Amino acid sequence: MASSLPFEQLVGPAQIYVAPVGESLPNVNATPAGNWYLLGPTDGEQKAKHGGALKYFYDNDHQGPVKAVRPQEDIVFTFMVVGLSLEDYSRVISTQANLADATIGVNVRTLPFKRGATPTEFALLFRGTALSPYGAFPGYYYVSRGVFDGEPEAAYARDGRAGLQVEFRPLEDDTQTETNKLGFLRVQIS
After folding, report:
1. What DSSP string describes 108-135?
2. pLDDT surpassing 60 at residue 3
3. Which residues of 104-124 are buried (b: 16+ CB within 10 A; e: fewer)?
């Protein structure tokens, strides 16, 4: 199998799961259970961008930089969720509690567009059945605490498939080890 390094692009469509912050993590080869909610599959075009530009320092004795530090770091997941229901849409832009059912001649469900000042925090599993660079093995990106960011954009294709283009951004989680505070990638290797 060809190497995927530096592994910037996720392989194939992924399944997006969200859960309340603190939900227990499933094994890499197990379908998430408990409070993990399948938000939906992606359209196959998803990215994990590692942010955090270096700052370089110079002195009078050298022409080139003598030190580099990363004052901030980040990772942003960008993907389109397809097969969208109103419940899925509401989780991304606000909270499912905002959905309202009514009977106005017919039974209807309404999703208000007002999102509010404070976003809902979720745990995120970005799971692929062949995400491992070591073969056709499962893997996932896991974020223990984060928010849907950016400006979600609903798209309706000619084939009738609805999708929602979103970004998910981790927030540091002090309940995790130092290296896992923004999440991690876990893959099966054999």
Report:
1. EEE------SSPPPEEEEEEETT--TTS
2. no
3. eeeeeeeeeeeeeeebbbbbb
Query: Domain range holding 99?
Result: 15-187
Strand partners, 140: 127, 186
Q: Which two tokens stand for residue 9?
A: 């692009």
pTM equals 0.83
Find, among 50, 6, 181, 44, the residue nearest to 126 by Cα: 44
In a domain, 71, yes or no: yes
* Residue 123 pLDDT class (50, 70, 90 cuts): very high
Q: Tell me, what DSSP letter sits at residue 94? A: S
Looking at 25-39, 43-57, 88-102, 152-166, which range is the least confident one? 88-102
Which CATH number fits the domain that encloses residue 27?
Answer: 4.10.410
Please state, in angstroms and rounded to a whole number, the distance separating the CA atoms of residues 180 and 177: 5
Structure tokens at 15: 């399944």
How far, CA to CA in Å, does 94 sit from each of 100, 178, 185? Answer: 13, 29, 26
Q: Give the Cα separation of 110 and 166 in Å (integer).
A: 21
